[in-house]
Amino acid sequence: MYIRQKLSLTLFALFFTGIFFSSSVFGQATLEEVSAASGIPTDQALIDEGKGLFSANCYSCHRIHSDWTGPGLANVWERWESQETLYEWIKNNGAVLASGDAYANELYEAWNGSVMTNFAWLEDNQVTALLAYIQDETVKGPEEVVADGGGGDGTSSESGVPSQYINLILIGLLVVLALILGVLVLIVTVLRRYIIAKKEDLDEEDQEIVNERVDLPAGLRSPQFLFIVVFIFAAVVAKSAIDGLYSIGVQQGYQPKQPIAFSHALHAGQYEIECQYCHTGVMESKSANIPSANICMNCHINVATGSPEIAKIYKAIDWDPDTQTYGENQQPIEWVRVHNLPDLSYFNHAQHVNVGGQECQTCHGPIETMEVVYQHSQLTMGWCINCHRETEINTDNAYYDKLVKLHESDDPMVVEDIGGLECSKCHY
Ligand code: HEC
Ligand code: HEC
Ligand code: HEC
Ligand code: HEC
Ligand code: HEC
Ligand code: HEC
C-alpha cells in the first residue's frame, strides 16, 4: 500500500504547486519603486483627484493601457525628455507643437494630426494628480473597468471580481487542471519504469500495484474524477443561475442605439453645454425632459448643416435648409429611452438635484464622456435605499435649519432621518 500512498501524496503536492505557480505573477514593480524613478507622488487623495479629472477630461480620448482616439498613457512620463515639457503638453499641447519639440511633432504626425484638446485651465498640481492616477493605473496593470457599476458611493457592485470574469477563471482553472493531469500521467509512467527496474526489492503487494497498467479511460470513469467534473459543472451552473436571478429587471449598462448619433461627449464634454440647457426640467420638476428638436435647432440651424446626422433632425421637423422654412409634416425624434423605473415607483429630479444638491454624475455616471448614453447605475430599490442610508441631506437650506437643530445628534443627518426609507415616499 505504501508506494501508492507516497505516489498520491506527491501528486497532491504537485497539483497544488501547479495551481500556486499558475496564479502567481512574476516581476511586477511596486508603485513605490516606479514612483522613486518617475518622481510622481503616490498619495491616495491625489490619485483620486486625478481619477476624477481623467474621467471628466481625458477619458473621451484616452485609455491607460490601450490606444483610443489618442495614445494609451501607461508609462507616458518615460516617453518625454523632461517633466516640464510633459506638463506643458498636457496644459497646452498646441504651444509645445509650435515650439518645434521633436517628440511632440513626431507623435502628432503618428496620430495623423489629431488635435488634443487644450487644457490651459489645468493647474500644475492638477496635472500632477493626473499623472499620479496614470502612474497608479500603469502599475495596477491592464484591468480596465469599462463602465464602473454603481453610483460612486458603494451603492453597487464596485468590489469583487466582476461576474463575467468568474466563468473565465473557472475555465482557465479547468485547462490548468487538464495540463497538470497530463504531466502527472507522464510522471507516473516514468516513476513506474524506475520502480520496475528495481522490482526485486518490492514485496508482493507493491509488485501487484506496479504491474497494474495505467488505465486512462478507467481513470476518467473513476468516481473521484466524475465527482470533480460534476462539482465544477454544478458550480458554474449555480453561479450563472444566481447571477441571472439577481439581474432580472436590472438594466444596468443598457445602451440602446439612438436614431441620431447625438454625442454627450461632444456637446456636454467638449463644448461644455450645461445639462440644464437641454434637460430643462431637472431643477423644477419630476422629469428631466429630453430636449425637443427646437433646442437642437438653436445651434444646428447654422452648425454642421451638411452632416447626414443633422439632416435627420431637419427631416424630423420638416426644415428645408435651402429655403430656410419649416413644412407641415413635423414629427418628434424617436429617442430610445435609457432609464426607466417601473410605474409603481416615484422619482423626482428636482428633489434630488435642486433640493438635495446631488450631481447628475452620481446617478448617471460620466455622461459628459459618453458617445452613446448607457445606464450607469442599477436603479433597483436597494440602490435608492442604500444612498438614502448613507447620504447626508443638503443643509444649505433654510427649510432644514430647525430640523437639523431638533435632530441634535453627533451623527450627521441622512436622508433616512427625514423619512427617506418610508415605503409611501417612493411608492404610489
Ligand atoms: C480630443 C481628444 C483628446 C483629449 C480630450 C485628450 N487627449 Fe491627450 N492626446 C490626444 C491625441 C490625439 C494625442 C496624440 C498627439 C496628437 O495627435 O496631438 C494625445 C497625446 C497625449 C499625451 C502624449 C502621449 C504620449 O504617448 O507621449 C499625453 C500625456 C496626453 N495626451 C494626456 C492627456 C490628458 C492628461 C488629457 C486630459 C486632461 C488628455 N490628454 C485629453 C487626444 C486627446
Ligand atoms: C445639447 C443637448 C444636451 C445636453 C447639453 C445634454 N444632454 Fe443629455 N440628452 C440629450 C438628448 C438629445 C438625449 C436623448 C438621446 C440620448 O440618449 O443620447 C439625452 C439623454 C440623456 C440621458 C438618458 C435619458 C434616458 O433616456 O434615460 C441622460 C441620463 C442625460 N442625457 C444626462 C445628461 C447630463 C448629465 C448632461 C450634462 C452633463 C446632459 N445630459 C447634457 C441632450 C443633451
Ligand atoms: C449650443 C449649441 C448646440 C446645441 C444646442 C446642439 N448642438 Fe449638436 N453640435 C454642436 C456643435 C458645435 C457641434 C460640432 C460641429 C462640428 O464638429 O462641426 C455639434 C455636432 C453635432 C452632431 C455631429 C454632426 C456631425 O456629423 O459632425 C450631431 C449629430 C449633433 N450635434 C446633434 C445634436 C442634437 C440632436 C441636438 C439637440 C438635442 C444638438 N446637437 C444640439 C452644437 C450644438
Ligand atoms: C439621485 C439620482 C439621480 C440624479 C442625481 C439625477 N438623476 Fe436623472 N434619472 C434618475 C432616475 C432614477 C431616472 C429614471 C426616472 C424614471 O424612470 O422615472 C432618471 C432619468 C433621467 C432622464 C430621462 C428622462 C426622465 O426624466 O425620466 C434624464 C434626461 C436625466 N435623468 C437627466 C439628469 C440630469 C441632467 C441630471 C443632473 C442635473 C440628473 N438626471 C440627476 C436618477 C437621477
Ligand atoms: C445619490 C444618492 C441618492 C439616490 C441614488 C437616490 N436618492 Fe432619493 N434622495 C437623496 C437625497 C440626498 C434626498 C434628500 C433631498 C432633500 O434634501 O429633501 C433624497 C430624497 C428622496 C425622497 C424624498 C424623501 C423625503 O422624505 O422627503 C424620495 C421620495 C426619494 N429620494 C426617492 C428616491 C428614489 C425612488 C430613488 C431610486 C430610484 C432614489 N431616491 C435614489 C439621495 C438619493
Ligand atoms: C427610496 C425609495 C424606495 C423606498 C423607501 C421603498 N421602495 Fe420599493 N421600490 C423602489 C423602486 C425604485 C422600485 C423599483 C425597482 C426595480 O425596478 O428594480 C421598488 C420596487 C418595489 C417592489 C417591487 C419589486 C419588484 O421586484 O418589482 C416592491 C414590492 C416594493 N418596492 C416594496 C416596498 C416596501 C414594502 C417598502 C417599505 C418598506 C418600499 N418598497 C420602500 C423604491 C423604494
Describe the structure.
This protein is mostly helical and 428 residues long. Among the domains are: 2-7 and 162-246, no CATH class; 39-140, Cytochrome Bc1 Complex, Chain D, domain 2, CATH 1.10.760. The protein has 21 helices and 2 strands. It has helices at residues 2-23, 31-38, 44-57, 76-79, 83-91, 93-98, 102-110, 124-140, 163-197, 204-211, 216-221, 223-246, 264-270, 275-278, 293-300, 308-316, 349-355, 360-364, 381-390, 398-407, 423-426, and strands at 319-320, 325-326. It has a two-stranded antiparallel ribbon with strand order 1-2. Strand 1 (319-320) and strand 2 form a beta hairpin. The longest helix is centred in the middle third of the chain and has 35 residues, at 163-197. Mean pLDDT is 82; it is low at 9-27 and 144-160. The structure holds heme C (6 copies).
Key words describing this protein structure:
single chain, 428 residues, mainly alpha, Cytochrome Bc1 Complex, Chain D, domain 2, two-stranded antiparallel ribbon, binds heme C
Brief synopsis:
This protein has helices spanning 2-23, 31-38, 44-57, 76-79, 83-91, 93-98, 102-110, 124-140, 163-197, 204-211, 216-221, 223-246, 264-270, 275-278, 293-300, 308-316, 349-355, 360-364, 381-390, 398-407, 423-426, and strands spanning 319-320, 325-326.
* CATH uppermost class of the domain at 39-140: Mainly Alpha
Major beta sheet summary: 2 strands, antiparallel
CATH topology of the domain at 39-140: Cytochrome Bc1 Complex, Chain D, domain 2
Q: Between the first and last Cα atoms, what is the distance in angstroms?
A: 73 Å
N-to-C order of helices and strands = HHHHHHHHHHHHHHHHEEHHHHH
The coarse silhouette is extended
Question: What structural class results from the helix and strand content?
Answer: mainly alpha
**Uncertain stretches:** 9-27, 144-160
Strand content: under 5%
Q: What ligands are attached or bound here?
A: heme C
Per DSSP E runs of 2 or more residues, the count of β-strands stands at 2
Helix content: 40-55%
Q: How would you state the average pLDDT, rounded? A: 82
Compute the gyration radius: what is it? 31 Å
Strand order of the largest sheet: 1-2
CATH architecture of the domain at 39-140: Orthogonal Bundle
